[in-house]
Amino acid sequence: MKQVEKKKVRQPRGLMIMSALGQFKADLVLKNANVLNVFTGEFMPRDVAINGDTIIGIGEYEGTYEYDLSGMYIVPGFIDAHVHIESSMLTPQIFTREVLKRGTTTLIADPHEIANVCGEDGLKYMLDAAAECPVNLYYMMPSCVPAGDFDTAGAVLDAAALAKYANHPSVLGLGEVMNTAGIMRCESDLYQKLALFHSKTIDGHAPMMHGKALQTYRLAGITTDHECTSGEEAAEKLRAGLALLIREGSGARNLDSLIQILIDGRMQTQRIAFCTDDKHVDDIRTEGHIDHHIRRSIQLGLDPATAYLMASWYPAQIYGLKHLGAVAAGYQADLVVLKSLYDVQPKMVLHKGKTACSLLEKAPRVSIAPAVCDTVHIAPVKRSDLRLRINKDPVPVIVPIPRQIITKRVNEHVHVRNGYFVSDACHQKVAVIERHHASGNIGLGIIRGFLRTGAIAATVGHDAHNLIVIGTNDTDMLLAIHALNESGGGYVIVKDQSIVAGIELEIAGLMSTHSADELCRELALFTQAAKDIGIPQDMDPYQTLSFLPLPVLPGLRVTDKGLLDASSGNFLTY
Amino acid sequence: MKQVEKKKVRQPRGLMIMSALGQFKADLVLKNANVLNVFTGEFMPRDVAINGDTIIGIGEYEGTYEYDLSGMYIVPGFIDAHVHIESSMLTPQIFTREVLKRGTTTLIADPHEIANVCGEDGLKYMLDAAAECPVNLYYMMPSCVPAGDFDTAGAVLDAAALAKYANHPSVLGLGEVMNTAGIMRCESDLYQKLALFHSKTIDGHAPMMHGKALQTYRLAGITTDHECTSGEEAAEKLRAGLALLIREGSGARNLDSLIQILIDGRMQTQRIAFCTDDKHVDDIRTEGHIDHHIRRSIQLGLDPATAYLMASWYPAQIYGLKHLGAVAAGYQADLVVLKSLYDVQPKMVLHKGKTACSLLEKAPRVSIAPAVCDTVHIAPVKRSDLRLRINKDPVPVIVPIPRQIITKRVNEHVHVRNGYFVSDACHQKVAVIERHHASGNIGLGIIRGFLRTGAIAATVGHDAHNLIVIGTNDTDMLLAIHALNESGGGYVIVKDQSIVAGIELEIAGLMSTHSADELCRELALFTQAAKDIGIPQDMDPYQTLSFLPLPVLPGLRVTDKGLLDASSGNFLTY
């Protein structure tokens, strides 16, 4: 494995010491700004002196280059404490350019999605990519690959596999432990993983967990959680000793309901940070990244200094990043210059002492390892494979819920011809096709009111990322399956036997090799095409498709193994 | 080197998980107490469930053993963030028993003194002793052995020597970097030491340092300071990014002047902890250890929860002790039960789930390595070696200042006979004799008004710990030197050519092998004898003797190399 070795920009020590002592000009001095002191929570008028990639002193300094920042504020670069980069559909190299502009200089990413497709090849690809990114890109090693037994993932990462990465300099700990049952059941491989990362940070994932289960989860060594949806849940988890990551993504939006207990002063904030978890690039462009968390928190009434601390110093403490999160001597020169603390529009962003403008001037270098391409391997799908025999009436039907990733189950009468289900205006067919090992596994289901004509398909389907297709007729569905098999993965819409829109996700069937601009254009066209085939305006086509197979969400799910009642854990028949 | 391997008391995982889930009784449950939640600063009515050495859950629990603690408080065991155990004159095994009774369950010790005498043998002795102590005993590796060029220490610990200990499980970082000039001058060996402990904690020692020097000190990677004497100094150091350790020892008392900025709410407290630095066992017995810091802070007006956090959770964070400092699931069962938050009188102390009473029931096991005994090696001292030729008038004279470790310089006429100094009621002779390598180095000086008759001598003399003797006549001085040479070190008082009191410090000439009770008796007798030979009541004989040779304090000093004007760095002649 290639170690992350960025070009060293650290200066000879003697020069730095002399500059810090004021005996020699610093390389760069940001003068007369109001600097956030993360240790005391004060904004103080100071100069910030920088040599190379390091802040060498705060006070009064002279520099070879000087910027007068009178009337401006300096805060530390923002940290996204938990993100799945794959959900942006961008490569790390491209994604990080997008968020850098908005002040994010550090990402703590969990490559759970690509690992479920490519296993260690996926980990290596993401770890290697870090060297080509203009931010600090750290990783948590995915703890739950595969996520469970209800579907077929592309890879298995057991404790022996993860052990190879435990001491990698870019690895901060173990990724979200969704296998909460495994904790309670003392599963040996899971506890081996916990032991590997015992001295580091271990992310949790425990929606609604409380009481003794929560105590047990904490006892096992879990240190964070990003699944809180209410102030009460947050308070109990904080009291149990978990650090909280407040999530605002494209789907899950928890900030408004969690921030209130902080504004009231009912809870201390030192163990709280911000994260996006999953956020699409178009949402980042329109709404923001961590800057959005800060802006919204202050709008809701949070003290500005606290909001900026939750975006920098606090996550640095939670994840043991000793050189990040502060504008102070000895810390890496990652900072954001703002005209207003309230609108959070960066006037300048520095990463390792270099401006975002200069870092983004060069075209991105995007190395793509062959090992993470060509990941769609399906057994030939025949028309008969998509036939759904109906043996009862009514049958279980999936009802997607607008703007949510959970679904509802209903039992309804559906249209049947010669013993087989037939799509109509009300009901459409769902198929999930195992796409890693060409096993031929196909699971079928029925969904209500998702589209009027044609078919839509994707190779993004949490967490196993099999191929999912929803359609009104088998011909279009087969074409969609065929198209994704040919293209190496992505999203596709078929109508009247022709492909009308598509997004190629060449890397693991999850990420595009295109630029953010191109991807945004493709997304816009695809969204329009989704409307054209009748997907309701209030239904996010990407999200509905990609979360429909996820077995850990409640309600009805379709996996490559069949129709699953995730609430009971039983597969159902028709 | 023997690794610290305490007997494992950790239980089988399955049993702990089942107990945490409430499916099985816990070993021990402390019921109905007001438990300090360090994550939120709240006291909450809860049961604390413990299996083996670990807290497994907070909530409602049943246990095989249960204590009803209605009306009581539970707080985490106290942490002394910086202590030189040698200053207690007790072995680590005995010292830790004393402080455990008072609620201290963790010590972060700097074996600077024994290292100056015995080098690596001293480090090994202290590291090995940790396994025989009923507390968590961690070490910072002494950064400044020898402390300077003005005297002769017993050993040199360069970066290569310290490298062997950088990954020892009991080592948390680098000990106080007193060589502040070395930081500014970019001394190579010092920066190698800093690099070795870069990812750990690096203690500072920077009295009155401020401005650009302070920024430079922080830039070099220093993370703490325990030398603040005013609120202003504390505020600047906190703002620079140093964590503060508030010191209350036998000599230096900084709490009252530092606590005010915290009471005013002008500073956040998360980066502040308590330490004793140097505290004699009799002071600990009469006044307390970290319990004294807490009691006094609350008396001065600090919020009780904050005081207890500064004694537990905050130092655990500063030193990266992930399993300590909280009463919460997954943390080590180190806690203190109190009837009152104000008087801080422990009703029960638990360390690793065992009561202090049970831990102290057994007689202490004190292994003494031969390598740290027999450390007094002096060249034969003849009467003529103590003769002090006087060539000028007046001559520089040391004036000790009551209750302080600093001295004043005056120039005075002294009694001279045949060209040599003669003691009288006003002036006495000081001799410092190199005692490590039998080099024959002897430094001589004159002190005013320290004693009326006889001689007093010690092998405790910061930081080189050479033999220091002060006397009214050479005969008694020679006997005192002889006595310490014979006994292997300690303190001795001679009057009329006979030894009238003595404290044997067999280990490195610094620590007694006796029990705390015995040592306290010896100290009381010695203190009385010191009065009998005329040492003024307001002068601490131990402290005056042991700090008189310290070259880093201002004023006149005597080292084995001669009379030093420490303020100018020049040796003086008579």
Structural class of chain A: alpha/beta
Beta strands of chain A, count? 29
Largest sheet of chain A: 8 strands, mixed
Cα distance spanning the termini of chain A: 48 Å
Q: Return the average pLDDT of chain A rounded to an integer.
A: 94
| Regions with little confidence, pLDDT below 50 for 5+ residues of chain A | 1-9
Explain what you see.
2 copies of one chain form a homodimer. With 574 residues, the first copy, chain A, is an alpha/beta fold. Helix content of chain A is 27%, strand content 27%. The first copy, chain A, is built from 18 helices and 29 strands. In chain A, strands 1, 2, 3, 4, 5, 14, 15 and 16 form an 8-stranded mixed sheet that branches. In chain A, strand 17 and strand 18 form a beta hairpin. In chain A, helix 3 crosses helix 4, helix 10 packs across helix 12 and helix 12 runs antiparallel to helix 13 (304-310). The longest helix of chain A is centred in the C-terminal third of the chain and has 17 residues, at 516-532. The first copy, chain A, is elongated. Mean pLDDT of chain A is 94; it is low at 1-9.
